[in-house]
Amino acid sequence: MENRAILDRYHLKESEYGITTGSAATAAALAALFSLNGEVKEVKINTPLGEVILDVKHSEKLNSCSGRASVVKYPYDDPDVTINLEVVAELILKNEPGITVKGGDGVGTVTKPGLQVPVGCPAINPTPMEMIVSNLESHLPEGKGAEVTIIVPHGKELAKRTLNPRLGVVGGISILGTTGFARSMNLKSYKESYRCQIDVAVAGGYEYLVFVPGNIGEKIAKQLLDIEEDQIVQMGNFVGYMLDEASKKGVKQIMLLGHAGKLIKISAGIFNTKHSVADGRHEIIASHAALQGADQQVVGQLFKSTTTEDMITVLEENGLKTKVFNSIAKKMKQLCSSKFNMDFEVTIVNMEGEILNS
Questions:
Q1: What CA–CA distance (Å, rounded) separates 252 from 191?
Q2: Which of 64, 105, 153, 213 could disulfide-link 258, Cβ–Cβ 3.0 to 4.6 Å?
Q3: Which residues pair with 68 in a beta bridge?
Q4: Do 26 and 91 contact (CB within 8 A), yes or no?
Q5: 289 with 282: CB under 8 angstroms?
Q6: Which domains does the chain have, with CATH numbers?
C-alpha cells in the first residue's frame, strides 16, 4: 500500500496503525461505484488525515447501474475486535443528484438518544458518513446520484463483543472513526467508547448512576439494585476519566460498585486500575487491616495471600472483614469527593456478589 506519507507524518510503523470501519466502508462504496466499469483491485480515498490507498477484496458489477465491493479492515498490532472484518457496500447509481447511505445487515441501528447518530438511524457516525458521501461525490458522473447500503457480514455476532448492546445500538456493529485511521492501543478511542454510556444515561434523564468495572460488576448490580439498565455504566480501567466525564455531564450522584480486586485501588488514589499500571491491593488491605487492629501475624498473612479473595478469607477468619472494607470504602468516598463534584456511595463485593462493607 502506498501510505508511506501517513506513516511518516505520524511517526508510525506499519504494524502500529490500521484503518477504521469508516475507511473500510468508504473504500468499499467507492469500489462498488468503480466496479460499474470493471473489476477493482484497489481504491484511493480521502480521509481527514490525507489520502490512502486500500486493497479491495472483491468487486463485481451487478447490472448496468449497480455494483458490489468489499474491503477488509486489515490487521495491525491491536486487540480491536473488528480487525480482519470484511465491510461490504452495495451501490445503485441514480439519475438524480444526491447520495443516500443506508445500513444493511450487520450494521446496528441506534435506539437510544445521547449518541452522535439520531435514534432510528443506522449506526454510521458523522465522520464516516461524510467520508462516504464526499468520496463518492468526487467520482459520480455529472447529474448522477447514488444509494449505498453498507453491510457487515457477521456484524450481529461481533456486536455482542462490543459495548453496542449497552448503548442501545441493536442488530450489528457501528461504523466508526474520526480520522480514518486506528492507531495501535488507541486509548482515546477506548475511552470514548466507554464515555458514550454516560451520554446515553444523561440523555435518558438519569442523575444517579452506578459505575462498575465490567461485566461481573454489571451482573451483580442488576442482582442487588432496583435500577434501570441505562443507569449502570461500565468504566473499565478508566475510573478517573469516567468520573470526570460524568461530573462534566452534570451527574449528581454515583455508586461505585464492583469486586474488591479492582475497586479498592481507588482508595489509594489509583484512578487507572489496569494491573500493569498500578496494583497495591496487598498494601491497601494490609494497611487498613492494621488500622482496624490486625496484629503483625495477620498483616503477614495478608501480604502472603495470592489473590484478593484469599485476603478476604483471612480478614473474615479474624473478624475484620466488614471493618476493613468499611475503612476502605470511607477512604474511597473521601478521595472521590475531593476530586469530583458529585456525591458518592461505595459497594464492595466478592466474586459471589456478597457485599463486604456495610
A1: 21
A2: 213
A3: 60, 90
A4: no
A5: no
A6: 4-183 (3.30.2110.10), 196-349 (no CATH)
